Amino acid sequence: MTTYEAAGVDIAAGERAVELMKAKVARSRRPEVVDDASGFAGLFDASFLLRYKRPLLATSTDGVGTKVMIAQQYGKHDTIGIDLVGMVLDDLVVCGAEPLFMTDYIACGKVVPERIAEIVGGVAEGCRLAGAALVGGETAEHPGAMGADEYDLAGAGTGVVEAADMLGPDRVRAGDVVLGLASSGVHSNGYSLVRHVVKNAGLSLDDELPELARPLGEELLEPTRIYSLDCLELARSVEVHAYSHITGGGIEGNIARSLPPGLDAVLSRESWTVPAVFQVLAGHGSIEQQAMDRTFNLGVGMAAIVAPEAADAALRLLESRGLPAWVLGEIVPGTGAARYS
Question: Where does the PurM-like C-terminal domain start and stop, copy by copy (predicted)?
């Protein structure tokens, strides 16, 4: 007799995965989360929006890209979900929005309950670090379309910002200071190039290179730093004009997105030391500086553009929160570009 299981879909394994992830998801819960007994939808009490004068909902969706292939190859699945949260919710905070909730989607060749629970546990941990709730998700088994050990994940998040407090290019002024907020590593961009370098250079993820303090695979799977709560607190405490999330396109490309047409950000390469992992990739891959600049964050995961009189207080606050930051550059008259001095 032909069954769904015979076609490669294991419903019982999916149900087991849900049971295993429940406790981890609960750690991301916010008071506004409302239980839906059916489980078909995630519910979030929006009555708190009544305290806003003009609440703007912000939404973002993204995936982790080919970093998942490194996780699959290395057999480490408990942090890739944090990367997903960083890609989704830290985009929301750029406009000043507080992340509220998130949903995730995992497609896989075969549901292995323990592995799915590890992935979703990472998403839940990322949401906790961002102050958001993981209110739902979906795991889909795609036998025949994906290998048994293959998976991909994506997610969507929603946040809110008071219209009068929205950050962005229109607030940026000449004389503002650009702060660099340290990344935790490669984050989740450029992994097609990373994998190309690893393969062509004959490297192994188990390699212990002299430049690195841990195996290459551990270094490449360091989860994306979550900036949401730090950026929200900074905006509440000092005069922040704009943020830039440094993802695909690199430092210059992303900071330029937060500039008005008549102003430039002039940055200093001498203001920070590029982490060793990027030097390893550049060296083993013979990657020119321009390509490194356009592909990787190079140690800057977020940039904050603040009023000049707020710069010192901003740096002190970030230091008190354990987030390394420094003066990366300044805003000057120009054409809306970010460039190095």
Answer: 173-336
- For the entire predicted model, the pTM comes to 0.92
Nearest Cα residue to 295 out of 278, 307, 308: 278
Contact (CB, 8 A) for 140 and 106: yes
Question: pLDDT by residue (tens digit) across 268-320?
Answer: 999 999 999 999 999 999 999 999 999 999 999 999 999 999 999 999 999 99
Q: What's the pLDDT tens digit per position in 100-156? A: 999 999 999 999 889 999 999 999 999 999 999 999 889 999 998 999 999 999 999
Q: Per CATH, is 169-340 categorized as 3.90.650.10?
A: yes
What whole-number distance in Å separates Cα of residue 166 and Cα of residue 173?
Answer: 15
* Alpha carbon 135 to chain centroid, angstroms: 18
Residue 78 makes CB contacts below 8 A (sequence gap 6+) with 118, 119, 121, 122
Under DSSP, the state recorded for 143 is B
61: DSSP letter: E
Q: Which residues contact 17 (CB under 8 A, 6 or more apart)?
A: 111, 112, 113, 116, 117, 120, 139
Rounded Cα gap, residues 134 and 145, in angstroms: 27
Contacts of 257 (CB under 8 A, 6+ apart): 169, 244
Specify the domain boundaries for CATH 3.30.1330.10 within the chain.
5-162
The Cα 63–Cα 61 span in angstroms is 7
For residues 39 and 183, which has the higher predicted lDDT (pLDDT)?
183
Residue with tokens 């013979």: 286
Please answer whether residues 87 and 151 qualify as being in contact, where contact means their C-beta atoms are separated by less than 8 angstroms: no
Determine the Cα–Cα distance for residues 193 and 201; give it in Å rounded to an integer. Answer: 12
Alpha helices for 151-227 (secondary structure H):
191-200, 216-220
Q: Which CATH architecture has domain 5-162?
A: 2-Layer Sandwich (3.30)
Residue with tokens 């394994």, as numbered in its chain: 13
